[in-house]
What does this fold into?
Amino acid sequence: MPLGAEIGSQDVICDRMNARLVKVCSTIFLSLLVVSVVSAQTLECAAFARQVIEESRQSCSELDVNQACYGSSNIELQPRENVRLDFSETGDIAPLASIVSLSTSHFEAEAEIWGIALAQVRANLLDGAVSLVAFGQTTLENSSEASSDFVALNLTVREPTGANLRENPDPSAAVVRQLYSGDVVQAIGRLSDNSWFRLADGWVSAEVVRSQSDLNLLQVLEPDSQIADVYAPMQIFRLRTGYEDSPCAGAADSGLLLQSPTAASAFFVVNGAPLTLNGTLLLQTTSEGRTVLSLLEGTLSYSDGFTLRPGRQIQYGYQGDVIEYSSDMDYNYARARLLPLVLLPREFELPFTLGGVIFPFTPGTGFLQGIPADGQCTAAWTVDVNLRLGPGTNYPIRRGVSGGYYGLPDARAVGSDGAIWWRLVEGVWVAADNTVTGGSCGTLPLVDPPPLPSS
It folds into this structure.
């Protein structure tokens, strides 16, 4: 039943009350009316997002390696000099090597605008490609001058004492870094006589490595070749996005999704940082210019040997000429649920965290008193609580949480125990009896409990 039907008309309800209650009645009615309007806007926003995602999926189903596809409006594309590209309508295709930059537009449901672009990037893979989805206020600048694919092959350091990676293919050249016995590294080029192999950041002598691959497949390079000479199109790029910029509860924030093929590691350089991905990654940038990496599944290697686990997030940016990385933390699970993941070829389950679901506060500081009566519903607790999959103690526990946290419920339900429960996000509930609230919690939509999970 629509919320308006449950509320009825103001005249009918208020006529049943005496004059002293008319003002109170009017306030309640207007509050419910606002909730009805907001709920309708959220539903319209979510419906538009689903429509655009499905149209993009169908229009770009034939995308090939090293190509970009126009998923939905609006997209601005800058081609290379003396290159003309027809890239203005849904389904249009452009070669990545011909693109200087590509920008998708922010989400605006009323104007029916949400920029989505899809691409297949060869990167360093022998087979397959990395799937790329840019959406919202996102700009990619192609920093690779490569006009075609290249091959990367694994080498293993066989020298017991290790080896030196050098700036040039010369035993007297400066040492870039030390390689250790048993290290597996990727060669992306070779000298014509196979005496030296080029890695992303230097050269290694053939005398200290071995490989099970046919190294003649590697691109032949000159001793003074630059790194851009051996990168595939869009394998090295600069990225700018909006951050936490969703205009409504049903739309995703702006960002860029990367997904590697199964059991394949893809190498990229993003905003100056080398990244090796075997899985699915969300990339965003903050207004301060820091790059945010949220690993959704698989593994991510960064900063010379550090790895990121699924459900964790880091930020990095330049301090002078050096890239500095933050400590890792929970990624924002609440916002990640709205990402256009169906545009990626491989399905997976988002790792559950409490990032964006609950937030710390200090009890006894009057935290809730500062929230206006018509403000966003806020439910806080000072005792240990169990967050459950549904509204009731018969639902599984998602996570036990200590006191000193609050959430921002978006709905409520009568639980199997007859009590009210708050929904913090879909699939995360807390008993109202364990919380103290501020804001307009009484006007949250009343929803049906989700089905109990099958055992």
Q: What stands out?
A: The first strand starts at residue 67 and ends at 72.
